User: Fold these one by one.
Assistant:
Number 1:
Amino acid sequence: MADQQRGRAGADLSTAGPRPAWSPSPLQLDRDRHRRRAGVRSAVVAALSTVVFGVVLVLAITSTPGWPRIQASFLVPSSAWAAVPDVARGLWLNLRIMVVCAAVVFVLGLSVAVLRTLRGAVFAPVRWLATAYTDLFRGLPLILVLLLVGYGVPGLRLQGLPGDPVFYGCIALVLTYTAYVAEVLRAGIESVHPSQRAAARALGLGHAATLRFVVLPQAVRRVLPALLNDLVSLQKDSGLVSVLGVVDAIRAAQILTAKEGNFTPYLVAGAFFVLLTIPMARVTDAVARRWGAPGTGGAV
Amino acid sequence: MSGGAALLSMRGVRKAFGRTVVLDGLDLDVDAHRCVVLIGASGSGKSTLLRCVNLLETVDDGVVEFEGRDIADPRIDADAVRARTGIVFQSFNLFPHLSVLDNVTLAPRRVHGVARAEAEDRAVAMLRRVGLQDKVRARPDELSGGQQQRVAIARSLVNDPVLMLFDEVTSALDPELVAEVLGLLRELREDGMTMLVATHEMGFARRVADEVCFLHGGRVLERGAPQQVLGEPVEPRTQEFLRSIVAAGRM
């Protein structure tokens, strides 16, 4: 039916008449002016209130009685400058930990999620095991897992295991984050409508092919924002490996606070982590918009 | 078909999405207590027109006068206008997380400030009117398409709108369910509701409409009594459209 619209011969339609190029009527121009003015007004109000809030906050903090002492122990420019190289070197280690762990976590999390969604009595033990794993490691505080793995496993004196605490820190991070990511992915898998599975099976795709080509692509898209949220979280939790004595950004800052006699290096480390997180958060927003939105419908 | 007393009066309405001009200087009047049916090919702007009336879309130019006020003006309170109109969508758009009763009482309670007990009494009465008094506690996904659409109609009617907009309300329904929804629309018409209906059901248009408008190229190309527009159309485009409808066995 739509093709009837094409090839219209405008002139021969008595009521349609010729159509000159459109230009907005005075009425519409007035409406547009009003919308623009309203937009400018709300932008000005937002900007002003932000500035006022910021100024009040700064004045309130700097006028507290303890401010000079805080300044002396947290905001020493020379200490901050001295801390930059060591903290940056430590941050590079944090970054590598994050990237490696994220890749491993995604693969393992996907496996656990798939195991948890398997149906049938044969898979019951696997399902229970996967459930027990996610329950356990989502419940355990990450710092405990780090301490138990970092000091416990080397204590077993198993042959062939590396002695590097970074390795054990990564194991602990992977154990904890895999449990979270598996649950996020499972939610995604279960949110794909059964009719999608039915359509794939009807085409002759097997169980695995259905999962691989139809269910998982939709599931991962749908939970992408949550996954990227976990990635940002993993990035800053990589700082916790410092409890095992690894010299990452946090540990480097800790050593420097002793040397400098003030806490400024901690602030430097914190600033570095935030600087790293902000671009990543923006990238994840953009990725989620680009990939998360389309094809996630299918609602009835 | 004009006159200053029209409940809804559109003058020179334009709406474009990017480079696609959907409404191009459209004029349309709907007098109170009349049923105007919009026909036309897919993409001829029927849905866009209805969405502009309910302010779900902002028009790019022109006047949309409703109850004597230009509601295309950005200074108007859109929610107040929407509280006086009702729209029913092709795909029902019921809230799946709410029961039938809660779907119907949501707007009365949250928008119109009706107390819960009274809102529920009115909702049950309205559901009885659409023949669904025994589905009050059901969830939308437990209902057939026809039942869901009747709930959607009840959800609109319960707010006492002065104008009802119907956007191809039977297009997503199985043939045997179409009749129950169209029957409801006919009853509404007999009760004197002002209705603007976009539809592909020519039989319905013939029996129920006071006026049929054929939309083409973003304007009302032909308008008149159903016998005239559907029986002896003047415009070649209208004739062509009706021939394709007949060929599809929809007439």
Note: The interface with chain B takes residues 1-2, 4-5, 8, 10, 12-16, 19, 22, 24-25, 27-28, 31, 34-35, 38, 299-300 of chain A (CB under 8 Å).
Number 2:
Amino acid sequence: MFSFCADPETLSGLTWVSCYLTTGKHMGFYASFGTVMLLLLVTAPTALLFGFGGAMAARSVVAPIRWFGKSYTSIVRGVPDIAFFLFFVIALDQGIEWMRHKVKCPDWPEAVRQGNDFVVCSEAKMPLSSSAQWVHEIYGFSLAVLTFAIVFGAFAANVLFGAMRAVPRAQIETAEAYGMSRRQAFWRILVPQMWVYALPGLSNLWMILIKATPLLFLLGVEDIVYWARELGGLKTNAFAYPHPDWRLWYFLGLLVFYLVLTRVSEIALARMMTKLTHGQATTGGEAQRKAAA
Amino acid sequence: MSCLETIQAYGLRSIGIGERLLPRSDFTLCDQFTLIGSGMIWNIYFGALALFIGFFMATGLALAKFSSNIWLRKPAEWFIFILRGSPLFIQFFLAYETFVLLPKVGVDINLGFAEITAETRWLTKAWLGALIVLFLNTAAYSGEIFYGALRSIPKGDVEAADAYGLTGWTRFKRIIWPTMLRLAWPAYTNEAIFLFHATTLVFFSGFPAWQQSGDALYYANYFADKTFNPFVPYPILAGYFILLTLSVITVFGLINRKLNRHLPQEQRRKMRIRPQFMR
């Protein structure tokens, strides 16, 4: 990074620190914070979409769709999310490869599952073994995002389903009295009003999502936890920048990062709640009106 | 090996009793059910103990945060903020790295009937180190729930207690504490469920599984790795956890009924998922 970093052996004090903190590996560490933020920004809307779909399915008049929606929304209550993470990453990967295998090698003679092996033809591998490293990384990251979206979609479906039920029944009855169809009443009356009921749950979900991001490490993505362990570990004199076991300090850094992130979100979400409550026929809206008057 | 023999060999494998070597090939359904079930011992151990000890600390934290004394309030606020604001996963790593750095000493504790040597080395083992992290974590989350309940105790209840001449400890024990519990209980049930789920993180977060004795997820992951087939071990794990969740709901529901027994039927608060209180 800096010109004086050429020979780390001669450095000491502040220059050593500045050189140490700007090595290539540390740049990877800083970039992985970007990975976390990217995961958050991609997952949040996707999960919300999944959740909306799940909540709609759970309210469906068609019984099989309703059963599917109900089981999707209730499954996260019974089973630890981390089990889902570990499950979906392999299951999705195998599912994709299996489908590609069926399409690309229809006359493959052997079974895909042979005892303890999962064998597909080489054209069906995902990504192809010949593709570049970055393709593998992007694929791994996308699988992780999809997994997060499925799990958090189920949480969001829970919240949205509750919010849809919280909208006063009289509102829907009025819509029906005006001759709106079920679909119209849903999109024009229910959906615009449900957000204020959903927001406390959704804000909490956002917090859970933030706090779930270090689990990326378990899904095999090179995230901040991976780098903290990698960089913090004991470095002998064989390394350019030898130091004792500093993992504690790296993890303290991560702790502070997460505290700042959750605190900032908390403040932003509180502001949003104040905005959304404005003029609503809820106790919160009433309190705001009284305070202003 | 017949299924009964498998259960005898591996039923208590997770706490180090029974066959030493895990099955390596030809995994039967019975193998998977037994070992994953055996791992549940750890999940129940961590969850139940952390909840039990955490409950008392949570009450203390809630009272401290509610207190008007700044020396009590500020530390409680910071404690709750730090433990609720950061991921449990990071807390596990941080605690483990701290415990590893501690000097290795032993302290003799006289229990009256026997003398044991408590060693700081124990802190680096999951059974103590992870338990401490889980305990502090659940104390912070439940402390916040109890604090919220303390703030919503009806003013009239406290005034009535004052009118009866109840003060200090008696007023707390007979009026404030039961009311706080009653108001907080549905949310606290949620917390308990999610704490049991959080126990699956222990063996994936720095704390090593000594002699391959891990929790249910550890074994489920072991089978999924060996057979490369996630579709059997994870549903088994899910089944066990659904059973565990149902039992937690049943036990907490009974306590809820006891806490609400003086109220008219229709005023009783139903137990259902409260998304704003998920951890």
Note: The first strand of chain A starts at residue 113 and ends at 114.
